[in-house]
Amino acid sequence: MDADKRRQLRDAFGAFMTGVTVVTSRDPQGQPIGFTANSFSSVSLDPPLLLVSIDKRSANLSNFTGCSHFAINILSEQQQETSNIFAQKIEDRFSLIGWRPALSGAPLIDHSSAWFDCALHQVVDAGDHAILIGRVEQFDSCGTAGLGYYRGAYFTPARSAESLLAGPEVVVSALIECQGHTVMVDQATGGPALPSRRVGQHSVSDTLKALLADLDICANPGVVYSVYDDRQQNRQHIVFLCAMPTEAADPLPTPRGGEWFDLSRAAALPLSDSALKSLLNRFVREHAVGNYGIYYGDEQSGSIRQFAS
């Protein structure tokens, strides 16, 4: 394939939105090593396997293909600089970030959205890359929104909500999912609803943080899941898909002023708000397959743009 075709193929691959990870391990001398990668994917739940690829031109190729363990650190929206550090040839990268060793010794980067400590399960030769398949031995997730990558540039789904303010009144809602359950609260007007708050004079992100703090369940701000206009009420609704940290979800904490509903039960509730009922039904379907989209429209009709699966 000539240079022009390779560039076109690279651009076509870039149309697929991904997250950003830093892959870490130790060299034979015990020194921490790492590189930035967006070619990451889950492989299997039983056994728990994942994969990431490494360029054969990497100076650390033999260290990663010959290691006993490595870690995957999924970067949060605030970690663009960390991604840049590990994407460049910088001396002593680990002195520029906060990190700690996993049980295996592989470096875990502080404030990552999630991490996986893996035993090297298999190395697969794949053209100009090698695929590292890891067996997950330990993992954790703090539920914060992950850093995105699309066509050669970073994007921050949660932060982008700041640009969505439009109209005289904006209402922020939290769709919090954990272990197949979601939080619902009783409205002042009667009937169940998602936890919600008017934005008022505050920013969207500050309003969402205050809303989650009121629930007192350690839920973290996530990505925008639905944006729709209620023309009858002259409001714009922004619904965030939020997550719980792994360690805070067993058992499920009791939300202040609300309760957890099994997702199938939540979708079957007698909801007076048809837009909310439609949203919950969509979420139940998407949750079953693990592939989500973002809805844009009004309370009656709109379009769904799929996230990367």
Secondary structure topology:
Elements: H1 3-13, E1 18-19, E2 21-26, E3 32-37, E4 40-45, E5 48-55, H2 61-65, E6 69-74, H3 80-87, E7 99-101, E8 107-109, E9 114-126, E10 129-141, E11 148-150, E12 153-155, E13 170-178, E14 181-186, E15 192-193, E16 196-198, H4 204-215, E17 220-230, E18 235-243, E19 258-262, H5 263-267, H6 274-289, E20 293-298, E21 302-306
Parallel strand pairs: 13-18, 17-20
Antiparallel strand pairs: 1-11, 2-3, 2-6, 4-5, 5-10, 6-9, 7-8, 9-10, 11-12, 13-14, 13-16, 14-15, 14-19, 17-18, 20-21
Short description:
This protein has 309 residues and is α+β, with helices and mostly antiparallel strands. It is 18% helix and 41% strand. The longest helix has 16 residues, at 274-289.
Structural class call reads alpha+beta
Q: How many DSSP-defined strands?
A: 21
Gyration radius from CA atoms, angstroms: 21 Å
Shape: elongated
Largest sheet: 9 strands, mixed
How many helices does DSSP assign?
A: 6
Distance between the termini: 29 Å
Low-confidence segments, ≥5 residues, pLDDT <50? none
Strand content: 35-45%
Helix content: 10-25%
* Mean model confidence by pLDDT: 86
What is the H-and-E element order? HEEEEEHEHEEEEEEEEEEHEEEHHEE
Q: In words, what does this structure look like?
A:
This protein is of the alpha+beta class. 18% of the residues lie in helices and 41% in strands. It has six helices and 21 strands. It has helices spanning 3-13, 61-65, 80-87, 204-215, 263-267, 274-289, and strands at 18-19, 21-26, 32-37, 40-45, 48-55, 69-74, 99-101, 107-109, 114-126, 129-141, 148-150, 153-155, 170-178, 181-186, 192-193, 196-198, 220-230, 235-243, 258-262, 293-298, 302-306. The strands form four sheets. Strands 13, 14, 15, 16, 17, 18, 19, 20 and 21 form a nine-stranded mixed beta sheet that branches. A seven-stranded antiparallel beta sheet has the order 3-2-6-9-10-5-4. A three-stranded antiparallel beta sheet has the order 1-11-12, with no helix packed on it. β17 (220-230) and β18 form a beta hairpin. The radius of gyration is 21 Å and the shape is elongated.
